[in-house]
Write a structure and sequence with these properties.
heterodimer; A: 305 residues; MetI-like fold; 3% strand; B: 286 residues; 2 domains; 15 helices; 73% helix; globular; disordered C terminus
Chain lengths: 305, 286
């Protein structure tokens, strides 16, 4: 047997073994992806066009027609759900993110005790929403601490139903989302600011740059990649993010959101209609994300440092 | 810290002082509810309703023992819920991290025809805002009867999410020299992965594991949908609140709430820097 043949056999078997290795390592991930992403999404689309009734299964646009019909009816919850979904996005992201940025900036500027604050501010994002909401509910109970304090301050008997009165419930939830939503954003943004090269900021300081200018003209452009990533992901989650509705009100008292509506339908064993609603909002959401991504990418050209 | 504060210009000092006051108030609103919950957890039920703000007359630490007996969801006791939470947290994290690590390693270090496509798809699936896949997922889980503490792990075994992106970044930058030395000594691909690469990746793996553990421990959504018969602690807290209305012993409920937060706080105290720094890494690329 010639040496060359042994060698090529050796390499061939090595190549095969490597192929097996690659295949095996990827197998679970790929199978999981094939089932829980590819199959699930194909099935979602199929479900959206399917209508099962007592007489049988039919295919068509019935689910979509029902959706657009119910969406226009004033007493149905769908249009309200869309409004609430946008409100959650507005409060959590459009307002929440700039506020987080301010928090992060002042933590970076070494407000006294900033290390302690950073830890405390992060706590809401590592404690279960189930716990936070439970505490929040008890604070706002009719005879709970908040009403007790308000009574003491106003001198009248305040017994507001913060969560079960249609007038306040969505506002209360929005406040909760805003108040507990800073944590991870603050940590992300302070991290990004701390990774900036200090010499740029030092020069600016020597030139007598004031805080507002430092924030707006130096820091924001330089941490733009982090900011825009956060915004893109928030936009991608716009319609999926049901908010803490399950924990607070289960969609009662005018607090319905799109995400919770779908969830609720699934809970009552209806699959086809929510799949159609989901498809509608995916179709709306996809270009939206792409636009946001494109626009944000163009505001500041990549800053090199 | 104080020294650098004194040296600053006056307007800055005023602004920072105002910010300090505001931060302080915000921090109090976060901490105080937990102090209040702790005090409430030591009261009797009547006392809790009578005087919301008063200190407990007797500090009933025995409430915590009672909680283990009385905090129940269906047939599942508190210990059962803790057990369910621990199982889901550790098994789910193990599955999630191991699968992501394997896929990330191959895509980063074994360039083949599919690796670029896989990477692109992973990024794409994270940005594309799919809204309505819950119905199909729910149907599938029920059909395959994965709605039990073991089967549900299939949902966690995804190999192309955030963990993939982070570990991919790590494996791409990890030195290949040791691995090559291993290959020359005749080690197989498996051996190189297990004996040479994974030990080097341990810090990265530990930190994403901690984040994953916190996430699963806190998650009430997945258990609510799929694990109705084996509730976790997070789900228990949600469900008990609803049962509450007609079987009230609120202090016991506070005990359960605080006990469920305790592990998170301990982990956070031990790994504070790891957690914070890796939250950074998690949002870094994209």
């Amino acid at each position: 047997m010639s040496g060359e043949k042994v060698k090529s056999n050796f390499f061939r078997s090595r190549k095969i073994r490597r192929g097996i290795f690659i295949g095996a390592m990827l197998s679970i991930g790929l199978i999981q992806f094939a089932i829980f992403w590819v199959y699930v999404n194909v099935d979602s689309i199929l479900l959206a066009f399917k209508l099962t009734t007592r007489t049988g299964v039919s295919w068509g646009l019935d689910n979509f027609k029902r959706f657009f019909h119910e969406f226009r009816m004033p007493d149905m919850e769908l249009s309200l759900a869309l409004t609430n979904t946008f409100l959650l996005f507005l409060v959590g992201t459009v307002i929440g993110l700039p506020v987080s940025l301010l928090f992060a900036y002042y933590l970076y500027k070494k407000v006294p005790c900033s290390k302690f604050f950073r830890v405390v501010f992060f706590l809401p994002s590592i404690i279960s929403a189930a716990v936070l909401v439970a505490l929040f509910k008890y604070l706002l109970a009719v005879e709970g601490p908040v009403n007790t304090i308000l009574s003491a301050l106003t001198g009248r008997d305040v017994s507001l139903e913060w969560l079960t009165d249609e007038k306040y419930s969505m506002g209360t939830i929005l406040f909760y989302v805003f108040w507990t939503g800073f944590g991870s954003n603050i940590v992300l943004l302070t991290g990004a600011i701390h990774r900036l090269p200090t010499d740029v900021l030092e020069y600016a300081k020597l030139d007598g740059v004031k805080m507002t200018r430092e924030l707006v003209q130096i820091i924001i452009p330089m941490i733009w990649p982090t900011l825009s990533t956060l915004l893109v992901f928030a936009t991608a989650g716009l319609f999926t993010n049901s908010g803490p509705i399950l924990l607070f009100t289960e969609g009662q008292y005018k607090t319905m959101t799109i995400g919770y509506f779908i969830f609720n339908e699934v809970q009552s064993n209806s699959y086809e209609y929510p799949a159609a609603i989901g498809l509608v909002f995916t179709v709306i959401g996809f270009p939206l994300v792409m636009i946001v991504k494109g626009v944000l990418g163009k505001i500041f050209e990549d800053v090199e440092y | 810290m104080l020294k650098s504060f004194i040296k600053r210009p006056r307007t800055e000092k005023i602004v920072l002082s105002l910010v300090f006051v505001f931060f302080f108030v915000y921090a109090v609103t976060i901490i105080l509810p937990f102090v209040w919950a702790f005090l409430s957890s030591l009261k009797t039920d009547d006392e809790y309703y009578e005087k919301v703000f008063a200190l407990p007359k007797q500090w009933l630490f025995s409430n915590y023992i009672t909680a283990f007996r009385e905090f129940k969801i269906g047939a599942t006791s508190m210990l059962g819920m803790i057990g369910n939470s621990l199982w889901l947290t550790f098994a789910g994290t193990f599955v999630a991290v191991m699968v992501s690590s394997a896929t990330a390693y191959i895509v980063a270090k074994y360039p083949f025809w599919g690796s670029k496509i896989i990477y692109r798809i992973a990024i794409f699936t994270m940005i594309i805002p799919i809204v309505g896949n819950l119905p199909a997922t729910y149907k599938l889980v029920m059909q395959l009867q994965l709605n039990n503490p073991v089967g549900i792990l299939a949902l966690y075994a995804g190999g192309f999410g955030f963990n993939f992106i982070i570990l991919h970044g790590f494996y791409r930058s990890v030195s290949w020299t040791y691995a090559e030395a291993g290959f020359i000594d005749g080690a197989s691909d498996w051996k190189v992965y297990w004996r040479i690469i994974l030990p080097q990746a341990l810090p990265a793996i530990v930190s994403i594991s901690i984040l994953s553990c916190i996430g699963i421990w806190n998650d009430y959504y997945t258990p609510f949908l799929y694990l109705k018969n084996s509730p976790t602690l997070a789900l228990g807290i949600y469900r008990f609140d609803i049962i509450q209305t007609y079987r009230s012993n609120v202090p016991i409920y506070y005990c359960a709430i605080l006990l469920s937060v305790l592990p998170i706080l301990i982990v956070f105290c031990c790994f504070q820097n790891t957690i914070m720094e890796n939250t950074v890494a998690g949002g870094l690329k994209g």
